[in-house]
Amino acid sequence: MATTNVAGVAVDTRHWIGGSRLASPTTFADTSPIDGTKLGEIARGGKAEVEAAVAAARGAFAPWAALSPHERGVIIHRIADLVEANIEQLAQVETADNGSLLRSHRRGVMPRVVHNLRFFADWAINELHHPNFITRDHTNVVSWDPSGVAALITPWNAPLMLATWKIAPALAAGDTVILKPAEWTPLTASLFADLTAQAGLPAGVFNVVQGLGEEAGAALVAHPGISRISFTGSVPTAKLVARAAADNLTPCSFELGGKSPTIVLDDADLDLAATLAVEQYDNAGQVCLAGTRLLVQARVAEKFAKKFAERAALIKQGDPRDEETQIGPNIHAAHVDRIDGFVQRARTDGATIAFGGERNTELGGLYYRPTLVTNAKAGTEILTAEVFGPVLTMQTFDTDEEGLALANGTEFGLAAVVVTGNRERAEAFTKFLVAGTIWVNCFFVRDLQAPFGGSRKSGVGREGGTWSFDFYADVKNTVYAPTGWK
Ligand code: NAD
Question: What is the structure's pLDDT at 369?
Fold first, then answer.
């Protein structure tokens, strides 16, 4: 079957290569984390499909790169218009596929997809000024040239949002694109491909190869015809990608995992702190940026813990299509086993499970209860490894210096949340925190013009605003002599 019906929407289950649909000899099953229903059999791409996609993307490159940012922007805006007109369908399909909240897909995530497209189209037009500067009377002119074919590899926790955060700047920069979505969430990429065709994007400029990471993904990142690899996913996979890319010296951008702290200082508004802490369970904890380590100054720890537990107890877990639900399921059974494994090993290591610590069996196998782990011993796995589920830990500290040392005490450096009533203390913390993004008395405020990425093992490079174009484009400097003109 070339299409499957998901939430009343027909989704093509084949690849999208060179402006046509292409099947593969084999398929893989895509199931919904909401209730385990099978959503479709998806084309299982490998070397041959990657070869075809690279040929199509390379063939489409020269004419696409030759357009001006404005000409490209007109088409990208048209895609954005079509996404906007199809928000309901995209939201329904995304929720069925990855189990995130329907209301947030409708009102937050899909509008953000539209914004991703519009923002980067406009940034290429308006903001990539060519800063001219003079060296001994010679004029330097900086430009951002299209680089070739961008291979984009994305995870399942926010599929279309994270894909378009890469697709939009790559297309706006004049690159052509091959997207390999996560095998757990292949569907909205396929719908998006339809919209690019409707918007008049020339054949081959945008391609989707479906398939498993170790097959389609591995073939794509090893291909010598690729000029850029932008990867969002886990650290172990990033290492495989980096090794494959090394053979061709393909530049990579890595947005990886985290073990970020939420730091509550003793002068914090504890109601705000508890609210922000509860937000770290959003998307059932499947958020790379989540501040999953609650680090609380000892003087206020008891009071904070009480407020936090009260709020956490009110979290409504259930079907992500219900308007009242706050936390849905986790992505698949092996992932829930992995989450539970972390919690059970923490227990064995002597930690206390303050609440949660088990599947919510009333709802079915994939719903894990919001969990808090306390009294974990320093250096144990639960305090150092990314769980990527609704599992937070709490530790206390006495002095600010101790708090800072705890905060920086992992191999990651993606994000941090600091809650304090004192601006100077906030600045002292932010100065020394190792993190790509820090939120003070807030969480998840993200402007697309801001640099985004991780320090240490949380990533390599930054995307966002001009940083995205610095990556997807070949940045060039041309020096004009003051003399020699006729
Ligand atoms: P993953 O690393 O398992 O998979 C990510 C993608 O890589 C998938 O599309 C997968 O098919 C592909 N892949 C797997 N093996 C491959 C290979 N050998 N070669 C090429 N591609 C391959 O990650 P995941 O489980 O899908 O996502 C969760 C992880 O992503 C977490 O660590 C999370 O923190 C991270 N993440 C980071 C950000 C960020 O912006 N920093 C955002 C979201 C998620």
Answer: 98
